[in-house]
Automatic annotation (TrEMBL):
Keywords: ANK repeat, Repeat. ANK repeats lie at residues 1-32, 33-65, 99-131, 132-164, 241-273, 274-306, 337-369, 370-402. SMART domains: ANK. It comes from Lymnaea stagnalis. The keyword DNA-binding does not apply. It comes from the Eukaryota. It holds the Pfam family Ank_2. This is Uncharacterized protein.
C-alpha cells in the first residue's frame, strides 16, 4: 500500500511531489514496510524532495517497521570511504547557509553526509536506536565512514554507545560491545575511526560482557596497542577468565606486542582463573625469547597452575625446558594428577624435552595417581623413540597401573591394533610389542579383571592374528582364565566376528573343552563356525563339548543341511567324516540318512568325483551296509534322547548311567580328544 506521494519520490519527480503536497497529500503516510516518503527520499539521497517534505512538516522522527528513522536510512546509504576524511571535515561542518552555500550545493558535493547534517538540523534524533539497537553513529562506525561519524559526533552522537554483536556480521560472540571495540575488532582495524572516537571521549578501558577490553582485542595490531597505551589504556585489567592483554598476546605468539606491553609495566605475575601467569603461558606457547624476558622482568620460574603444572611441565621445546631447569625447577615435581614433567613430555610427544629431562635425572618409573608410568603413557601415544629411550633408561616394563594394566596390554589392545595396521604393526620401523617382549614383559600378568595380554590381543583385527603365535612363543598361557572363568578361547567365541580366531587358538593347543557355563555359545547361529579352511578344528570343538547336532546357518551354503553326516559328506573331508563316525557323533536321523540315500549302490567311479569324495562315499557305504554293534546303536539312541547342549550335560549327569557311559555320551573319551592329524587312523566300530 504505497501512496501516490511514495511513487513520486521513487521516480524522483520533485514537481509531482510539490503538486501532491499542495493538494494536501499526507506526508506521513506509510507503506507496508512502515516507510514514510521521507524514508524513501533519504534512501535516494534526494535533497530537493527532503527539503520539500521538511517544509511540509513531515515527521523527521518517524520510524519504519525496523525502527529506523530517515537519519538511519541516510547514514546507511553513505558509502564507506576512509579517503574522504582527507577533506576538511571541520570546514564542511561549519559551512552554513549564511555563507551563501545551499543544502542542494552541499549535497551535490558531499552526498549523504550533507543530507544527514540537514536531517539533524531538522530535528532528527541522533541517538535513537532502531530495532537492532543501532544508532546512526553505530552505522557510521560499522561502515568506517569517517566523515559521517565526525558529523554525527559533532551533532551529539554518543561515542560510548553499546551495541550488540548479534546485529553485526563478522563480530565475535553474542556480546554487548562499545563503538571503540567495534572499530578495533581484528577483522576491521579501523584505526582512524578509533582515533576519532578516542579524541571525542570514548572510554579507553571499556570492556564487553566478559570483561574483554579494547586493548585485549587489539593485541594482534601493534599500532593499535600503542595508540591505546598512549591514551591511558590499562595493561593489567583481567577479563572474566582472568587473562590480561599480555597473556592474550603470548597465546597468539605476538611477541612484539608482548614486549610493548612489558614496556608499559604489565604485571608479569598476575594469574588467570586456571592459575596461569604470563610466564607459564609463554612456556606453553613456545615463546622462548619471551620466557627469558619474563624471567628477567621478575616472573616466578617455579610458579605452577591450579593443576600443579610448572613451566617445566608445560615447556613446548627443549630451550624453554632448559631455562626452567637452570632456574631450579624440580624435574620430578608432581602435579595434582601425580604426573611429573616427564609424564607430561611423553603425553604431548615432546621428544626433545623428554630427552632433556632424562639427562637431568628424571625418574622413569614414577607412577602418577592412576598408576601410569611414562612407559605406559608412551604406549598410549605410540612414540617408538620414547619407548626405546625409556627401556634403555631401565624403565620397568612390568609395572601395572591402578587398572592392573601393563604397557604390553596397552600394546595389544584393539585401538592400538587399528593404528598399527596402517604401519604393518610397526611404528617408525619398530614393533612395539616385540620390543616390550624382548625387554622382559611378562605375558601372563593379569589386570584387575583377570585378563592377560593374550586376552587383549583377542580383540584385535584379523591382520594382527600372527601376534597370537608371538605371545604364545613368549610363554602366554592359553588356559589362563579371567575372573569370570573365561579363557582366551571363550572370549574369542563370545566376540562377534572373531570366531575365525578360535581355529588359530585350537591349532596352538588351546583346550577345546569349555566350561559348562560357556558351552551354550556353540549353539548360537554363527557364520564363523565351520569355515572351509578350519572345519575339522571346529568339529573337534563341537564334539569335545557334547554338541550333538550343530546349529549352523551360513549364507554361503545354497542348501539346508539337516544332519551332521550330510554336512561332512557334502563339505567336509574323509578324515572329518571318520572322526564323526568314530565318536558315534551321530543321531538316529543320521543313521536314517545313511540308509535312505542308497550309498551301498552308488557308483564311486564317476569322473566328476574327487578322490576325497570317493573315500567319503566308500566310508558311508560300509557304514550303511555293515551292521553296527548293538552297544553303539544303544549309545546313539541314548545320545539322541539326551538332546542338545547345554541341557544335555545336566541330563546325563542326573541319569543313572555308569560313569564310563556318561563320559562317552559327553565325548570325554580319548577318541574325542584325538588331534586332527590322527583322525585318518581312528578305528571304526563296523570295521574288522
Amino acid at each position: 500500500g504505497e501512496t501516490a506521494l511514495h511513487r513520486a519520490v521513487d521516480v524522483g519527480s520533485t514537481e509531482i511531489v510539490k503538486l501532491l503536497i499542495g493538494v494536501s497529500s499526507d506526508v506521513n503516510a506509510t507503506n507496508a514496510d512502515g516507510d514514510t516518503v521521507l524514508h524513501k527520499a533519504a534512501l535516494r539521497n534526494n535533497i530537493d524532495i527532503i527539503e520539500l517534505l521538511v517544509n511540509a512538516k513531515v515527521s523527521v522522527g518517524a520510524v519504519n517497521n525496523n525502527g529506523e528513522t530517515a537519519l538511519h536510512v541516510s547514514s546507511a546509504s553513505a558509502e564507506s570511504d576512509p579517503a574522504s576524511f582527507c577533506l576538511n571535515c571541520t570546514d564542511f561542518i561549519n559551512i552554513g547557509l549564511e555563507s551563501g552555500t545551499t543544502e542542494k550545493q552541499r549535497s551535490a558535493e558531499y552526498g549523504p553526509c550533507a543530507i544527514v547534517q540537514y536531517l539533524i538540523k531538522a530535528g532528527g534524533d541522533i541517538n535513537l536506536e532502531d530495532r537492532y539497537g543501532n544508532t546512526p553513529l553505530t552505522i557510521a562506525v560499522t561502515n568506517n565512514n569517517l566523515m559521517l561519524a565526525h558529523i554525527l559526533i559533532n551533532g551529539g552522537g554518543d561515542v560510548n554507545k553499546v551495541v550488540s554483536s548479534n546485529t553485526h556480521q563478522g563480530l565475535m560472540q553474542s556480546l554487548d560491545l562499545s563503538l571503540l571495540w567495534v572499530a578495533l575488532y581484528r577483522k576491521f582495524h579501523r584505526t582512524e575511526m578509533a582515533k576519532l572516537l578516542i579524541q571525542h571521549g570514548a572510554d579507553i578501558n571499556v570492556s564487553n560482557e566478559d570483561r574483554t577490553t579494547v586493548l585485549m582485542l587489539a593485541v594482534d595490531q601493534l599500532d593499535n596497542v600503542k595508540l591505546l597505551l598512549e591514551h591511558g589504556a590499562s595493561a593489567n585489567i583481567q577479563s572474566d577468565d582472568g587473562n590480561t592483554a599480555l597473556m592474550r598476546a603470548l597465546k597468539q605468539h605476538f611477541d612484539n606486542i608482548a614486549k610493548t606491553l612489558l614496556a608499559a609495566e604489565a604485571d608479569v605475575n598476575i594469574r588467570n582463573k586456571r592459575g596461569e601467569n604470563a610466564l607459564l603461558i609463554a612456556a606453553k606457547s613456545g615463546c622462548t625469547e619471551m620466557v627469558k624476558l619474563l624471567i628477567q622482568a621478575g616472573a616466578d620460574p617455579l610458579s605452577s597452575t591450579n593443576m600443579g603444572n610448572t613451566g617445566l611441565s608445560l615447556a613446548a621445546n627443549k630451550d624453554i625446558a632448559e631455562l626452567f631447569v637452570q632456574a631450579g625447577a624440580d624435574v620430578n615435581l608432581r602435579n595434582v594428577h601425580g604426573q611429573t614433567p616427564l609424564h607430561c613430555a611423553v603425553k604431548k610427544s615432546k621428544t626433545d624435552v623428554f630427552k632433556l629431562l632424562l639427562a637431568h635425572g628424571a625418574n622413569v618409573n614414577m607412577k602418577d595417581f592412576y598408576g601410569n608410568t611414562p612407559l605406559i603413557i608412551a604406549d598410549h601415544v605410540l612414540q617408538s623413540d620414547i619407548i626405546l629411550s625409556l627401556i634403555r633408561a631401565k624403565a620397568d616394563v612390568n609395572i601395572q597401573n591402578k587398572k592392573g594394566k601393563t604397557a604390553l596390554m596397552y600394546a595389544t589392545n584393539f585401538t592400538h591394533a587399528i593404528f598399527c595396521r596402517r604401519y604393518k604393526l610397526k611404528i617408525d620401523g619398530i614393533n612395539v610389542r616385540d620390543t616390550l617382549l624382548k625387554s622382559g614383559a611378562d605375558v601372563n600378568l593379569k589386570d584387575n579383571t583377570g585378563r592377560t595380554a593374550l586376552m587383549y590381543n583377542c580383540q584385535e583385527v584379523q591382520e594382527a592374528s600372527d601376534e597370537y603365535d608371538k605371545l604364545v612363543k613368549y610363554g602366554a598361557d592359553l588356559e589362563a582364565e579371567d575372573y569370570h572363568g573365561r579363557t582366551v578361547l571363550v572370549q574369542v567365541l563370545l566376540t562377534d566376528g572373531m570366531t575365525f580366531m578360535a581355529g588359530n587358538l585350537l591349532n596352538m593347543g588351546a583346550n577345546p573343552v569349555l566350561k559348562a557355563a560357556y558351552r551354550n555359545i556353540l549353539m548360537k547361529p554363527s557364520d564363523g563356525f565351520f569355515m572351509d579352511f578350519e572345519r575339522n578344528i571346529f568339529l573337534r570343538l563341537f564334539v569335545c563339548n557334547g554338541v550333538v547336532n550343530m546349529v549352523y546357518f551360513n549364507s554361503y551354503f545354497p542348501m539346508i543341511l539337516d544332519t551332521c553326516v550330510e554336512l561332512c559328506l557334502c563339505y567336509g573331508g574323509h578324515d572329518l567324516l571318520r572322526y564323526v563316525l568314530a565318536n558315534c557323533y551321530i543321531s538316529n536321523k543320521d543313521l536314517s540318512f545313511i540308509r535312505l540315500k542308497n550309498y551301498a549302490v552308488m557308483d564311486t567311479s564317476q569322473e566328476e568325483l574327487s578322490p576325497d569324495q570317493k573315500k567319503r562315499i566308500a566310508l558311508l557305504q560300509r557304514a550303511a551296509c555293515q551292521p553296527w554293534p548293538l552297544a553303539n546303536l544303544a549309545f546313539i539312541a541314548v545320545s539322541t534322547m539326551m538332546g542338545e547342549s547345554p541341557e544335555r550335560e545336566d541330563r546325563i549327569q542326573n541319569s543313572q548311567l555308569p560313569n564310563p557311559l556318561k563320559d562317552m555320551l559327553m565325548f570325554k573319551t580319548k577318541v574325542a580328544r584325538t588331534t586332527v592329524e590322527e583322525w585318518s587312523t581312528l578305528p571304526l566300530c563296523f570295521e574288522a
